[in-house]
Amino acid sequence: MKFLRDAFDGYKPDFMPGGKLEKWYPVFETIETFFFTPDHVTTSGSHIRDGVDIKRLMTVVVLALMPALFFGMYNIGYFHFEELVALGQQDSYTFMEAFLFGLGKLLPIIIVSYGVGIGVEFIFAMFYGHGIHEGYFVTGMLIPLIVPVDLPLWMLAVAIVFGVVIGKEIFGGTGMNILNPALLVRAFLFFAYPTFMSGDKVWVADALKTGTEGLPDGMSGATILGQLGTGAEAAFPTINGAAYSVMDMFIGFIPGSVGETSTLAILIGAVMLLLSGVASWRIMLSGVIGAAIMSFLFKIWGANELMLFGCKHLLIGGFAFGLVFMATDPVSAAQTNTGKWIYGFLIGFLSILLRVLNGFPEAVMLVILLLNVFAPTIDHYVVQASVKRRNKRIEDKIKKALSV
Amino acid sequence: MSKDIRIKRGVNIKLVGQAEMMFADVAKSKIYSLSPDNFHGITPKLAVRAGDKVKAGDTLFYSKHNDKIKFTSPVSGEVSEIVRGAKRKILEVKVLADADTTYKEFDTKMSSKEEVIETLTESGAWVFVKQRPYDVIANPSDKPKAIFISAYNSAPLAANLDFALQGKEESLQKGIDVLSKLTRGKIHLSVDGSNPSKVFSNITGVEKHNVTGPHPAGNVGVQIHHIDPVNKGERVWVVAPQDLAIIGDLFITGKFNAERVVAITGSEVSKPQYVKTIAGSSIDVLLKGNLKEGDKRIISGNALTGTKITDKGYLGFYDNQITVLPEGKTHRFFGWVPWLYNNIFSIAGSSFASKDKEYALNTNKNGEVRGFVVTGEMEKVFPFDIYPMYLVKSIMYNDIGEMEMQGIYEVAPEDFALAEVINTSKIDIQKIVRDGLDVMIEEVG
Lengths: 404, 445
Fold this sequence. Notes:
The complex is a heterodimer.
Chain A: H1 2-15, H2 25-35, E1 36-37, H3 54-87, H4 95-128, H5 135-146, H6 153-167, H7 181-192, H8 194-197, H9 224-229, H10 246-251, H11 263-275, H12 281-301, H13 305-308, H14 319-326, H15 337-358, H16 363-403
Chain B: E1 2-6, E2 31-34, E3 44-46, E4 53-54, E5 59-63, E6 70-72, E7 77-84, E8 90-97, H1 113-123, E9 130-132, E10 136-137, E11 146-151, H2 161-164, H3 169-180, E12 186-192, E13 207-212, H4 220-227, E14 236-238, H5 241-253, E15 259-265, E16 274-278, H6 283-287, E17 296-300, E18 307-309, E19 321-326, E20 332-333, H7 388-396, H8 400-405, H9 417-422, H10 429-443
Parallel strand pairs in B: 1-13, 11-12, 11-14, 12-13, 15-19
Antiparallel strand pairs in B: 2-8, 3-5, 4-7, 5-6, 7-8, 9-10, 9-14, 15-16, 17-18, 17-19
Helix pairs in contact in B: 3-5
């Protein structure tokens, strides 16, 4: 790799202050640090440092997203070809065909997500003269996993510009934001383009098309939550008429946004995040506990199909994905350990509450955004408890001194 | 009677190059240097000029703000040079040592607090008494509520105190007797509970604490927090064990003899051993012929809190250890790939880091400086009832009231050393904490 290193060292002076391409330094720096860890050394304080930096951390998160991404691609193809088989246009299909179909559908979204997002980051990085921060590396992969597969790319681009600028850059970039930028993109789409995003059929490829290209009569691309919300029978017709089993829900043969369908793939990602210590196990565990309690209570109440669905709620919709990859975002989550327990629990508890009582399929997204806003408040009270213990020491001393 | 303190949060960083328990033969340094930078917050006023003859114990310079705090020559000889930097700032006062040291005689009477303070300040031994809060040299006119001594050195590659202080039992006991004149409160002595030191086993006049747990359990600040925390307006004083022996010797012999045992450690040292030397000795005689090839960093002190010095530099006044590490000014190809370069450990909570392996770490930052992203990592190595990130952030936005509420009076930069090591965003936290403490000295005092 010496020739590459030599090349970087050769071009570097042009990008340094005084060089002719000085303004483009952030771009150069980003590319250079992609290939080589910088040779920055410590100057004072601790002379040795841990091997983990933000780049490594974000890489782990993106790797943890891979199972969900790959399954999501297959899921897109699976529903597409199941349609064709049901329509009688095709007899059978292979795993690879399904996967490649999904890849073809998703690749443009991924490209637009990274292209637009990193473009915005570049502009801000050049404006402030710092390198590109790695935060968008994860955000850019999260976004394709939580939007409908048929989303027009221009809508996606507008939403990403909003999400990155309003969600992150105006606060000062990675580490300073209050809300999770990826969720903000999703929320923006939900509120800005309700005619596209509403309805429960956007989650299967080509489901919105009409006529001969669309779904055949009697078939539905509706999600389980969508069907439950409209009060459908307990046995939900799948794309080919059979009911979704719990196993389907766990493995992911259900309609939904790209990344959220397979609880199994998400769990593999969760294990990676927890073993590497990147995500907070407190948030995940308390989130599951909160959701389980709420689902259980509704099951006892049992007034409608949504309530009777019970703990299966944990397997469907965006719950697992949101809890593992969105709620654990360290920047927008609660920062204290006690705060994380409260934050995670409330996310689980409120997600199911909102989902069941309001019939909001997007409940998880909205609840995480809500708790993002409340996280600093939760932390405030946790930290104040420590401050109070400190103040009490003085008060006790004064009391003791006065009583003598 | 002894009490037990168990520290759970922390981590022992095992580095290659633990000093073997034997003394290496080294030549005596010709030049000794006293640097005002070793004494944080001190503005020096010179008491000597180049060419002056001094005895060991003669004042070289004193504090501009408190002329009782004097800094004396560790050896006898001739002031050879006063090194100045920008704006004529005094960087070093160098003394060319005589072949045989002659000592100034000090009064060893210790019937009252005033007499003890007089001898300590006149001899220059007072600078061994530091105070919390703020981690600076104590003010002799303060009334400390207690004095703390940590005889548990948990820092990476730290000197073995039993070995370094062998035969000094009498001096240590005398030192304790001296300190007992300085406070009406208790003198707390903490020892390593899992491997109690022998030299301190018969010390009397102290309250003993057995401290167990990983670094920073040996930091005196951690012990104070768990024994008798510092509240606003209170002062406690701290003395390090080797310095305590020097104070004891002073009152036994009447001479200021800043002799100490220094551990020469680190992966770049051929034969890690101990040496006997005097504070301010030049480094090259201590390391002569004992270094490996390659780009190195010489640290006076330990790898977490020490000061970077050159190979022509001098041993820091308080330091009992020299650490030599490989300099890390290299690029790593695809260094961010998680499964590559795993020789660099990840303490931040990864369960993969091996507990017993010794690491030969270099000084590379392993990343670029970023804003705070990861939460909860500092808490894992910060055994205080304080939220470290909130405190650090309050210092960064310079809110004095908030710093006070978040507990700044209880911490010293060294307590954040491990937090700095594991910080994913590569922020220099110890420097931030030092700046915060300086702001508090200025504003609150």
